[in-house]
Design a protein that fits this description.
Elements lengths: L1 E8 L2 E12 H6 L1 E5 L5 E3 L2 H17 L2 E13 L9 E4 L10 H4 L3 E10 L6 H10 L6 E2 L4 H10 L10 E4 H8 L8 H7 L3 E5 L3 H13 L10 E4 L5 H6 L2 E5 L5 H6 L2 E3 L5 H41 L7 H19 L23 H29 L15 H20 L17 H20 L11 H22 L32 H5 L6 H22 L3 H5 L10 H56 L5 H23 L1
Parallel strand pairs: 3-7, 5-6, 8-10, 9-10, 11-12, 12-13
Antiparallel strand pairs: 1-2, 2-5, 3-4, 5-7
Helix pairs in contact: 2-5, 11-12, 11-13, 12-14, 12-15, 13-14, 13-16, 14-15, 14-16
Length: about 650
Amino acid sequence: MMTVIPYVENGQNIGYRVYCKGASEIVLGRCAYLLGSDGKPHALTSDRLKEITSTIIHEMANSGLRTICVAYKTFIKKGTRDLEKTEIEFAEESVIDWDDEEAMYQNFTGIAICGIQDPVRPEVPNAIAKCKKAGITVRMVTGDNIMTARAIAMACKILEPGEDFLALEGKEFNERIRDENGKVSQAKLDEIWPRLRVLARAQPADKYTLVKGIIDSKATAQREIVAVTGDGTNDGPALKKADVGFAMGIAGTDVAKEASDIILTDDNFTSIVRAVMWGRNVYDSISKFLQFQLTVNVVAVLTAFVGAVTVSDSPLKAVHMLWINLIMDTLASLALATEQPTDELLERKPYGRKKSLISRTMVKNILCHALYQLVIIFVIFFYGDTIFGIKSGLYAPLFAPPSQHFTLVFNAFVMMTVFNEINARKVHGERNVFKGLASNRVFCVIWITTFIAQIIIIQFGGAWFSTHPLTLQQWIVCLVLGFSTLIWGQIVATIPSKKLPKAWKVGKGDVQPAKLHINGDYNVRARSRALTLRRSGKSLWMRGMFIIGNHLRVLRAFGMEKSEKAAFGRTAPAMTAEAAERWRASYRKYRHQKHQEKKAAVETAESVKSADWAKEQKEKRKTFKQIKQVVRGKSVDKEGKKHHKKRKDETNVDMEDIELH
């Protein structure tokens, strides 16, 4: 950065002084002199420059200091005073070409080299260590000196002794990744980025090139997920290109915030670690709920199906299914989704982009627990009356009161489901399912509430819930069966998931986008659709309502009584004779009035039409007569015609007189 100020001496403006600051090795290379300890300028030779670079600049950079060199040069007007060896004389201001950067950045006098320390936050090394443990590679892209960048990376634990890493400057980085034509080669970039940890003296384009190269790389089995942090305007392209862009909320510019996906309100790297931890916790919560829900669904559906097929009756009534769905959907989702994230989530490697939503471990848990519960339920269903010495509920009449037999089946199923909810807290094969249970108060409250509600439903539900009170012995058996699911869960955990077929995974692979048109049709050819009129959502909705209305009318027609069907074709309601006579009289009057109005309108139209027709015919006859006279050679002049007629009359009079004499 450069600043120009007027140079005043003894109250007189004698020229200009230019101050410059910047990277020490660059600015010092533009200096011709350097102020010594005596305060006087001394010539800066190449040997002296190398000595300062190696003994001062590199030493400061290795200590993690950002070095800045401050320099100046002076322009003196001609004739104002004698020049010193470091000053430049000019006759007129027009002689100084301020736009010539190459000339302006020469012949400086170095003042000092400053070392600025930007201390690393105490929590950053620990956060980066957690990222490494979680399988996240941290790379630093900075504009600092390579020595400074390496020292800061060592302090942050980005670089550690014994690691195979690369620390490059932007110039060397571009030389390695570009081909003979100056274009970025993906093959060359794939050889560098896996080991690259520090990129110093980097330009904004270098950061974007690195992000794009990692995203487009095929060097790894799965595509890398890239997250980028930035605070400046120049970081916008890289933040936009990355899968996840983090902008600084305090020091970040508006451009960086708009280009990012997440804004760190505290500008702290540890917030990124917490975001990763919460993201994995959400993923695990979804997996826990799916595992528990699918287990309950499989058992409930098969129990109802087998009961309906074998004995034409299901031990799980409609109200039982509603209560099970309430446990499964609402309460279980609240209980399993309120687990707080722990540091153990960062000890696992990140999930791949094509990882199955339902893993082999989850499939193993679902099938094994469902099989165990089905065996117990069917044993109680078919042999429970014999085992417990109670009246059988099989083949009961249609409106028979709730049986103790079916209530026992329902209670055993709910108890196993409630205890299996504890097993569902761990979906990665962990042994200790009680770890962290006491800290999750929401889970404990929901679990205890569900247990107490089940007791109330069984003992006091009666006909409302299709239940029969159970004895103490039967309750103990149900509790033992429920607790046995925890023991069965430990047995299932001993089965190695890696030995299971890979085809057991569900939801694997990338989601391919389908062709979606405005009307909601999928996977149709655009060319064929372009020739047809697309129906809007409103028209489809109206069509659906019309079909529903037709269905309702048909249902009402089938549900009519005989008397209603007889009157189905009537067009008017029944009336008394007097009312009907009044209605007919008013109707005749109305018809007569309408007939008179119509007749008057027709007559008026005909009279107007006849007058117009007579006038039109007169004009036609006149025109035809004129055309006929012209064709015969006669004049159509009226005056000439009158004169000729007058002479003819005079001639006729004379002839008469002659005859009389």
